[in-house]
Every structure is written in C-alpha cells, then in structure tokens.
C-alpha cells in the first residue's frame, strides 16, 4: 500500500478528473489517526501535512499536490500548516 503523489499536475489533468467539482475539506493544525475504507484522491489547495502510514515511511503533502491514498491504509495525519483540499472517494 503506497501513497501516490503527483506534484503540480497540469490544469488539463485536473480538469479531466473534474477536481473543481469535488467537495472541499479543511482542517487546522492538528494530529489525528485515519483509516481509508476506499481509495481517496485529493488535490491540496493550501497547506502542508505529514502523513505517517502504519508500517511505512512518512510522506509530506503540500499545496499543488494531487494525492491518491489506497483503500485499507491506516495512518496518522499531522497537519503542520492549516490545510484545504478537494477530495473524491472512488
């Protein structure tokens, strides 16, 4: 199980996914556990977080990243700068 990150994808790719029509989630600086029941794709609008997957290496996500989280992954989210993201569950 691996988190996939595409840094600064082209606008055409974001449009293909329909990212702008996805809901927006935001959260202040904090730390919390999370588990993904299904695949989540998100586009980071603002902020920065460290994702610490159970049994894996920490990954940093930040403004401009298109991120795919695999179904079944358990992790800790450490938000280090208030975050806003578009998200979609597959």
In short:
The chain is mostly beta strands.
Provide an overview of this structure.
This protein is mainly beta and 90 residues long. The protein has one domain: Jelly Rolls. The protein has one helix at residues 11-17; strands spanning 4-7, 24-27, 30-35, 40-53, 59-62, 65-69, 74-89. Strands 1, 2, 3, 4, 5, 6 and 7 form a seven-stranded antiparallel beta sheet that branches. It is globular, with a radius of gyration of 12 Å. The mean pLDDT is 96.
What attributes does this structure have?
single chain, 90 residues, mainly beta, Jelly Rolls, seven-stranded antiparallel sheet, 8% helix, 59% strand, globular
CATH homologous superfamily caption: Jelly Rolls
What's the CATH class label?
A: Mainly Beta
Cα-based radius of gyration, to the nearest Å: 12 Å
Count of runs of 4 or more consecutive helical residues: 1
Instruction: List the domain count as a whole number.
Output: 1
Question: Which structural class is indicated by helix and strand composition?
Answer: mainly beta
What sort of overall outline do the alpha carbons produce when their principal axes are compared?
Answer: globular
Amount of beta strand: over 45%
Distance between the termini: 16 Å
CATH architecture: Sandwich
User: What is the H/E string?
Assistant: EHEEEEEE
Give the biggest sheet.
7 strands, antiparallel
Q: Low-confidence parts lasting 5 or more residues at pLDDT below 50?
A: none
Residue share in helices? Answer: under 10%
Mean pLDDT: 96
- CATH fold title: Jelly Rolls
Give the tally of β-strands: 7
